[in-house]
């Protein structure tokens, strides 16, 4: 169950990272509230996952999911560059996440 909590925490991390773009410096109420809520949910779910998982593994996977998801959505939603080097680096992060999952059982 810890890996489920951790995956959901990472998805909410993507939500708040992307949400920051829509808050316009926290001047827009609805995006700001949704972003703050997503931050809280993400950290709470991470806390649940860390009851069982090692903190280093949990934190690395949480930030990795957030990083990969935010980078890919940045490319899709905001027209950020999708260079070969950038995509290779995103792939390396995914490899690291999978490696940590395999190493922790």
Automatic annotation (TrEMBL):
<keyword id="KW-0813">Transport</keyword>
<keyword id="KW-0812">Transmembrane</keyword>
<protein>
    <recommendedName>
        <fullName>Guanidinium exporter</fullName>
    </recommendedName>
</protein>
<feature type="transmembrane region" description="Helical">
    <location>
        <begin position="84"/>
        <end position="103"/>
    </location>
</feature>
<dbReference type="InterPro" id="IPR045324">
    <property type="entry name" value="Small_multidrug_res"/>
</dbReference>
<comment type="similarity">
    <text>Belongs to the drug/metabolite transporter (DMT) superfamily. Small multidrug resistance (SMR) (TC 2.A.7.1) family. Gdx/SugE subfamily.</text>
</comment>
<keyword id="KW-0472">Membrane</keyword>
<keyword id="KW-1133">Transmembrane helix</keyword>
<dbReference type="InterPro" id="IPR037185">
    <property type="entry name" value="EmrE-like"/>
</dbReference>
<feature type="transmembrane region" description="Helical">
    <location>
        <begin position="59"/>
        <end position="78"/>
    </location>
</feature>
<feature type="transmembrane region" description="Helical">
    <location>
        <begin position="29"/>
        <end position="50"/>
    </location>
</feature>
<keyword id="KW-1003">Cell membrane</keyword>
<dbReference type="InterPro" id="IPR000390">
    <property type="entry name" value="Small_drug/metabolite_transptr"/>
</dbReference>
<dbReference type="Pfam" id="PF00893">
    <property type="entry name" value="Multi_Drug_Res"/>
</dbReference>
């Amino acid at each position: 169950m810890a890996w489920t909590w951790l995956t959901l925490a990472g998805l909410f991390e993507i939500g708040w990272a992307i949400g920051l773009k829509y808050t316009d410096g926290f001047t827009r109420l609805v995006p700001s509230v949704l972003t703050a809520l997503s931050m809280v949910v993400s950290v709470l779910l991470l806390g649940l996952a860390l009851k069982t998982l090692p903190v280093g593994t949990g934190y690395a996977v949480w930030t990795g999911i957030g990083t990969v998801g935010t980078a890919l959505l940045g490319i899709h939603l905001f027209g950020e560059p999708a260079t070969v080097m950038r995509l290779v680096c995103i792939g390396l992060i995914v490899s690291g996440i999978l490696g940590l999952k395999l190493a922790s059982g």
